[in-house]
Amino acid sequence: MNPLNPRAALTLCSSVVLAIGMVSERPAEASPPEKPPVTNDAARTRQQSGNSVEENLPTPQLKLSPLEALRNFEPPVGEEYTLGAGDEISIQYPSRPDLASRDVIGPDGRTTLPLAGPIEVAGLTREAAGKKIAEAMSPYYTSLTATVKVEKYGSNHVILLGNVKNPGMVNFDQTPTLLEVLSKGGTETRPDGNVPEQCVIYRGDLVYWVDLQELLVTGSPLANLRLRRNDVVFVPALSTRTVTVMGQVQHPGQVVLRHDSTLASVLGESGGLNDAAGSNPELEIVHHSKGDRTQYVRFNDLLKPNGGMEISLSPGDIIYAPKSGIAKVGFVMQQLAPFLTMGSFAALAAH
What does the alpha-carbon distance between residue 64 and residue 53 come to, in Å, rounded to a whole number? Predict the structure, then answer.
């Protein structure tokens, strides 16, 4: 047997090693490591945290429009009257007319029955009060029924306060309404002859501002809002919503703001511009509610369609109409006139 030469032996060894490497498995690092599966606890934790985030998010809520809120504030039509302290009632028993009685519900909401004694009826309708009275009298009379009638509505009143001629309690024999309350109280009309711009209604913990004049102008039936017993209506003073007009106008002073007031209408209520303002003055509007920011507008721009509509006025604003340049020159000449006359006489005397 011939011995292998060194080169052939080396080639044979390399072939064997290569074959062994091809048959054996690849090392673990040759393939990318797989991500460990998410355990149930981890998934549960992430889900719970996600739920907590969702629970903490604010729930979106729709806001009612002012008119819709006012409709909800108004009692329903035909709401049945409930008895209250001060109501004078008569109780009739059809099967026993001799038991008929008449009483005024006391401040504690009770009325006194023969034999049965005091019984609370305040807050009940007439029908419910009749059933309760018949039940209270049942130990003493069999098959007894009772009917309740309101002879005088002593508890059906609204309190009117504020800038009115006759503040105090206003009584009604039917469902009270806002315009009836104001008319009976005698509201102070504004300088333009209109009713107050706003009023406030207090009902327990609820407070509602009513834009009365806007409701009247738009013809909304909510202007004559139905009220509840013991509502408090407050009419603010007229001077709380005014602007001041100064400078070259016919009647400088305060002008009451209406819901539809514009710069042109306010100037009109001040009598308009006088001759010293010229034909096209640059009006100055100082907005007190906006940090005394001053706005300028030419008078002729107000005469255009929708002119000045973009200028919103707020209570406390000041409108100033300056003198025109020609008026200023005329004023100076008027002041110098006596001196010019004396100079003319002196010149003539010198001749």
Answer: 28
Whether residue 106 is predicted with pLDDT greater than 90 in this model: the reply is yes
Those residues with Cβ within 8 angstroms of residue 127's Cβ, 6 or more apart along the chain or in another chain: 148
What is the phi/psi pair of residue 44, to 5°?
-65, -40
Instruction: Round to whole Å and give the CA distance between 285 and 293.
Output: 8
Distances (CA, A) of 283 to 249, 260, 280, 318: 11, 20, 9, 10
Label residues 13-35 b or e (16+ Cβ within 10 Å = b): eeeeeeeeeeeeeeeeeeeeeee
Q: Identify whether the C-beta of residue 243 lies closer than 8 Å to the C-beta of residue 257.
A: yes
Can you list the domains of the chain with their CATH numbers? 88-152 (3.30.1950.10), 157-237 (3.10.560.10), 241-326 (3.10.560.10)
Q: What is the pLDDT of residues 279-324, one digit of tens each?
A: 889 999 998 878 878 889 988 888 887 655 568 888 888 999 998 8
Is there a contact between 149 and 126 (Cβ–Cβ < 8 Å)? yes
For 236-289, write each residue's pLDDT tens digit. 776 567 889 999 999 998 888 877 788 888 999 999 999 998 888 999 999 887
Q: How does DSSP classify residue 82? A: B
Task: Report the predicted TM-score, pTM, of the whole model to 2 decimal places.
Answer: 0.54
